Here is the input.
Amino acid sequence: MTIPFKTETFRDDFTFSNSPAAIRRFPFPFDRDAYMYLVNIEQHVPGPVQTTTEFPIDIDEHYVAEMADRALVLKADPLRCQSLPHMITAEWDLLELLMTSMAQHYPDHFTLTRDGDRWHWINRPLGIDEHFTFGEAATLPLPPMEYVTRQCQGDFCLLDQRDDNLWMDAGIVTTQADWSLDFDLGMNFIEWHGPVPLAHDLGVFDRALKFLMNLQQGRPVRRLNWTMTINPRLDTSPENYHVWGIDKAGVTPENVGDKVHLRVELQALWRLPRSNAIVFSIRCYLIKMDELVTQKKWARRFHRVLRDLPEAIAGYKGLSRFRQTTIDWLARHDDGAETSPGF
Ligand code: HEM
Here is the structure.
């Protein structure tokens, strides 16, 4: 499958948009007209063709532009990529997972040839052709996690498992919904989820942690998370809040369709073979309201979800400033029809 990669930006002039095909495959996250936190974890098995879960690692038309945006973020702030020394084996595990998956499922774009530990990696869209020795960091121009994740869409956290907990001991995080790797590095599962409202009392995190501690190799899992972003900006980090926070104040009834985006994260977790660490991927998809309402059932449902969202969740997600303006705009696209559970 050859993907037509787009030339577009996620900052300044914001030329990002979704093709009709990208809109059709958008991972709309609501299976009913209301939303509440729960342990929404399922097996990461292949989904239908041309969906975002057809392959374990999803590469799409935004690939080249997203990688360019990641490079800009890292240039301005190298602390978006950090790894504690004991995570080096997990870094190699991650490199193997991503290269083998990308080469297997997108052979037009990526090729991996292995002769024992001597590996040859070709990334055609980014013009990379690299020979290196697996396990020997000196043979790559960058540490293995940074090397491979500068070539793969999505943020990645590497979690060490010890003392009955998961510890965020490495990661590359440049497209995050307002949280900071630099702040969370070294924290455990319960600690980094500290700011999330309601879910702790509902037992969501205790149950999710128990489940993940038993995650088996070869049986990855996934879940969807969502928030909203003004303008198609990938880098909505706390480090950069002074740049993007002000955007929220610029939403008006006239520009909702263009400025307000639903931001969906397809999150997947794999147990890694050598290190016994877990990799947590956060693949971000953006869709503006004008694009979203081209699908009638999404418009109807998202209107109701946003309208009835508990205030604590709306506040935590940072929606308060533009929520009502967006609800009023979406109301015009809600014909009041009854819906049934399911996507
Ligand atoms: C939010 C990381 C797994 C549920 C977050 C946040 C981070 C995070 C950094 C933002 C917290 C903040 O505001 O500073 C991770 C990592 C995971 C993981 C690294 C891998 C082990 C899970 C799982 C669940 C979950 C398995 C399942 C229930 C949530 C929820 C939120 C959240 C509900 C709030 C999201 C929102 O309302 O936008 N997670 N998480 N997380 N996480 Fe996780």
Q: What stands out?
A: The pocket of protoporphyrin IX containing FE is lined by residues 37, 39, 41, 157, 159, 166, 168, 179, 184, 189, 192-193, 195-196, 199, 204, 208, 212, 223, 225, 227, 280, 313, 316-317 (CB under 6 Å). The longest helix spans residues 88-105.
